[in-house]
Every structure is written in C-alpha cells, then in structure tokens.
Design goal:
The protein is α+β, with helices and mostly antiparallel strands. The chain has one helix at about 55-80, and strands at about 90-95, 105, 115-120, 135-140, 150-160.
Amino acid sequence: MTQPPQPGTNPYAQPGQPGPYGQPGPYGQQPPQGQQPQQWSAPQPTQPARRGGMGFLKILKIIGVVAVLIAVGVGYFLSQDDADHAKAGDCLKNNGTQISPDLQVVECGGATAEYKVVQVHQDTLDTAKCENVSDIGYQEQTRGGRRSSGKQFVLCIDKIKK
C-alpha cells in the first residue's frame, strides 16, 4: 500500500524541488558520473510485414484469364465441326429436324454420316447453284458472334445411300 505524500511536500515537484517523499524530483536529478542521460524519442512507425508470394487478387486475376482462354479454346474447337467449316468430300449428320436442320461434320466411314458435300459456294444463299449437281441445296447464313463467323454459304449435298 502506498502512503500519501507527507505534509509540506509537493508531489508535482519542479526540477530542483523535493518530490513526494522528500527526495529530489525526477527532473532535478543529475545522472551519475560517466553515464549519459537517457534519451527518449517517439517510436518510429514500422512498415507492415509483407508476406511472401503473390496477393490474393493477383491470383484471382490469373485464374480468370486462364478460364477465359480455356472457354475460347473449347468454343473454337467445338465449332470446327459446324456446317460453315464443311468442304467438298466431307460428310454431315443432321442434329436438328428436316424443318430446322443443324448440320455437323462427321467422319464419312461412321454410322452417323447421312450426307456428303459435293460443292461449297461461299458468299451466296442461291441454292439454284446446286441444281443438276446434287440432291439437296442447303443454305445457311450465320450471324457474327461467339460461335460463328458471320458468313453465308450454300452446300450442295447428296444423301448417303446405306
């Protein structure tokens, strides 16, 4: 337990005046000989420690870019067998209906091959070019977008007899 200051002493002593217990105040003391007075300074701000490696946002950006590249690659690969890439001699199958066909390039020796391309006419929708050349004139106009190149063409195709 601490004792209250004795009468006649000033607890808030000025330098050179006695402190609360009759001892000289802290500011009036001289350091012992051979010692330097203690220097006080404000604490220096420290930089936050950086963790090694990449930041979380940077990793997310990299993952996003890789995902977009994969999606573009898969879309390109899947569109390579669409009718707009057919050449003379390729075989096709219809994934749609007779009213709304969806032709896809397939292997000619496969069981799914239904039609064989005889001629391809780019930049036209005139199926009359297939008269006296093939059984069917198939025309398609694609819109420019994700999966198509925005072109028009006519395929002169023959039905494969099985």
